Amino acid sequence: MSDLQAETTEVLQALVRFNTVNPPGNERPAMEYLEAYLREAGFFTELLGAHDSRPNLVATLDSGEPGPAIVYLGHVDTVLADPEDWTFDPWSGEISGNHLWGRGALDMKSQVAAEAVAAASLAREGWRPARGALKLVFVVDEETGGALGARWLTEQHPDKVRCDFLLNEGGGAWFEYGGRRLYGLCCGEKSVIRFEITARGAAGHASLPRAGDNALLKLAPVLSRLATRQPGFDLIDGSRALLDGLGENPADPARAMQHILQDAPALAVMVEPMLGVTLAPTMAHASDKVNVIPARARLRVDCRVPPGLGEDVAVTRLHEVLGDVAEGLEIEITESQYANVSTPSGLLMEAIEHWVKAQDPDASIVPVLLPGFSDSSWFRTAFPDVVAYGFFPQRHQSLLEIAPLVHNADERIDVRDVGFATEFFVDMARTLLH
After folding, report:
1. CA angle 195, 284, 290 (to 5 degrees)
2. So what's the pLDDT on residue 52?
3. At residue 183, what are phi and psi to the nearest 5 degrees?
4. Range 300-305 average pLDDT
5. pLDDT of 80 above 90
């Protein structure tokens, strides 16, 4: 085990043992631990937050000379965990075999640990940026939208987190397709546009089913269509680059998906949402009493839209899927949160490609889109010229092994990948800030 791997594993264990389930978050103890660790290494550190119990950490190593600023971004809050569902306690940081177990081991305390140890090791050995600055920005509240974290920082303290390059979560795990080994580099996230679909009828006593007009039954065809129909494809530059990187024809996404479904069905589950709008019914409500036929029934639909596309595309695709069953229903957009994308080319892309080739000569980088939302979007919104990628390289645990563990029981990471990623962040700082 290398010194970097051992130290990063130790820091990750410490971070996992802080219970930062959000809500309520309670991230301060974890942030104070990271602040002390980085301050001792030579970083200038600040805790900044809208609430005292939930501060964000900004740690800076500045050259004092004009030049690019690179941000290593990460969040320390996690989703919930029920210890009864886990092999090991989710806040134990238990190591079994090559794996470290615990909530946040993948999402994303491992990347926070790797970024922190990489930066601290550089600072301790006397390295300083020749120009520009290295900034570590560790935030709260990502799991519930970032209102107290990345969004708050970029809106309230933009000068402290302004950057030219940013590395965050969303990519880096390897997968195979067409006999090739590929690492996904996340260039953007999908926007969130949520719908509420309402059906109306007439109330009645449940003992007389035909006496009323059951609004809930009117949603059954809607659920059936959402379950059995898929919206058409809406490709953007990033998804075209993805298909091209997979060796498929971006001009014919339907045939491309047929190939992927046939050759790699598990991979297709993750690729298909990157190629267009997705529609997922997630919440329903009708009568407040079991013996009352509902006069109104509501269905909430979570819709994700490729970056750069808007509500008009979402509405068009929803009606395409529902067809004639939408007649007589009320459809309302209840929430819109727009994401964005960085171009998959330029200095940062080249640096990552060069590093991957040096470490894994037979592998290649392929651009991907994150089907969900990440804090990178807040930075792209605040700083339109920033190049923000999601990349945390992992060569031992594959994408198909990792994906089912995120937000699930028995979340765990191969500690060899922890060391591998730390080496990446060391080399990126040296490369971009020479």
Report:
1. 150
2. 93
3. -115, 125
4. 97
5. yes
- pLDDT at residue 187 greater than cutoff 70: yes
**pLDDT for 36:** 98
Whether the per-residue pLDDT at 339 is higher than 90: the answer is no
Distance CA 369, CA 92 (A): 32
Task: Note if the pTM is more than 0.85.
Answer: yes
